[in-house]
Design brief:
By secondary structure, the protein is an alpha+beta fold. Among the domains are: 141 residues, no CATH class; 133 residues, Heat Shock Protein 90 (2-Layer Sandwich), CATH 3.30.565. It has 12 helices and 7 strands. The radius of gyration is 38 Å and the shape is rod-shaped.
Length: 410
């Protein structure tokens, strides 16, 4: 029988003290608040104590007992059964008192068994074991003082030892099971929280990539208007429209990032899991950069790339193009994607090192660090840096297994 203390009902209110509350290790004398299940368990425990007391009373009446002793036994038995209702508040004290009384009185045995079981369940072994030992010791005076013959003494001692052992072992098993259930529940909650945190980080990382791309395009169009104030009205209107569209999309992405960071877990209604781009969307990304004024050349030689690796490769190329716009200005950028199924999938973004005219977009330097982490998590590697030829190159290698699910690129 597994039972919870009465003060366990509002478990959510004791989240930080969950191990103590769940396992019944609250301080003696604490306030008892019983749930419906607690009332049912307490009633059953009370009835069990009363049943054992009545059985013991029937056996006691068969023995030669003086009337004063019988009266004391009956009063003590009734009070002991009533004291069972205090077992949640003072389990150790109640068990000690009943164990001492059971050293001579027979009718307190039922309540003594219930009290011992309560201590074994709700207290650690270092407390419950001495209580069980005291119950063993109280068997000696009971057997010597109350039994008439050697056979009766042997039978009473064997029965008492068996009952104490069984009740104590039962309580220890119940406590161990409760600890295991609580531990598994904590592990499940911890794993769920970790999964939520990882999902938040994934969404925030995706939003960062998209947001940086939008803002860099916006800055590029604004720079064109700044350095060409005499441009034809059609070009100015087209650039202004691109700025408005990019700003609107950037604000939308920013709202989603704030929503992820504000709430304890990703909410599908607040942060929809948008369709993620793959390698098939790379030509559209390059065309968007060209419309923003970049000179981008794409050499795509890979087809049938797995969706997951294609998404990673798309993000790497996107961040590399964003960095090129930030730091290299209007220099031409070459994007080369290739590989062989069963070996490696490669991507290279190369641009000349050139001084940028005008304001430079600020950056925290975390973009390339994030790309390196993304490549390593995908089982690959990434290198970046200037070359002796005066170029800046970002190279990525990702595994391309043969058995992976493939995606047809266009």
């Amino acid at each position: 029988m597994t039972e919870l203390r009465g003060d366990e009902a509002p478990v959510h209110a004791y989240r930080w003290a969950l191990p103590s509350v769940l396992l019944g290790d609250a301080r003696d004398g604490g306030r008892v608040r019983r749930s419906t299940r607690d009332w049912i368990v307490d009633i059953l425990m009370f009835l069990a104590a009363c049943f054992i007391t009545l059985v013991s009373l029937g056996e006691l009446e068969k023995q030669p007992t003086s009337e004063p002793l019988m009266a004391v036994e009956q009063v003590a038995g009734a009070l002991a059964c009533a004291s069972v209702w205090l077992r949640r508040r003072w389990p150790v004290a109640l068990s000690l008192v009943l164990a001492v009384l059971s050293s001579y009185l027979e009718l307190v045995g039922g309540a003594c068994v219930v009290a011992l079981f309560t201590v074994a369940v709700h207290r650690p072994f270092k407390i419950s074991a001495p209580i069980a030992l005291i119950n063993f010791l109280t068997l000696a005076p009971y057997v010597v003082l109350r039994q008439q013959s050697d056979d009766d003494r042997a039978w009473a001692l064997a029965l008492g030892v068996t009952v104490v052992l069984m009740v104590f072992a039962w309580g220890v098993v119940v406590r161990a099971r409760r600890q295991l259930v609580w531990s598994l529940r904590q592990r499940a909650e911890s794993a769920a929280q970790q999964a939520k945190q990882l999902e938040r980080e994934r969404i925030a990382r995706e939003m960062h990539d998209v947001l940086a791309h939008r803002i860099s395009i916006l800055s590029l169009h604004a720079g064109a208007l700044e350095f060409r104030p005499d441009a034809p009205p059609e070009e100015i209107a087209r650039a202004a429209g691109a700025i408005r569209t990019s700003a609107h999309q950037a604000l939308q992405d920013l709202r989603e990032v704030i929503g992820v960071l504000r709430h304890g877990e990703p909410d599908a209604d607040l942060v929809p899991d948008r369709p993620q781009p793959t390698l098939a969307d790379l030509p559209a990304l390059v065309e968007e950069c060209r419309q923003a004024g970049m000179d981008v050349r794409l050499d795509l030689r890979a087809g049938g790339v797995p969706e997951g690796q294609g998404r990673n490769l798309y993000r790497i190329v996107q961040e590399a193009l964003t960095n090129a716009r930030k730091h290299a200005g209007d220099v031409p950028v070459t994007v080369t994607v290739g590989g062989e199924r069963g070996k490696e999938l490669t991507a290279e973004v190369r641009n000349p090192l050139a001084a940028r005219h005008g304001a430079r977009l600020p950056g925290a330097g975390a973009g390339l660090i994030g790309l390196t982490e993304r490549a390593e998590l995908a089982g690959g590697r990434l290198e970046h840096g200037p070359t002796p030829e005066g170029e800046f190159v970002v190279r990525a290698w990702l595994p391309w297994p043969v058995e992976a699910t493939r995606e047809e690129t266009s």
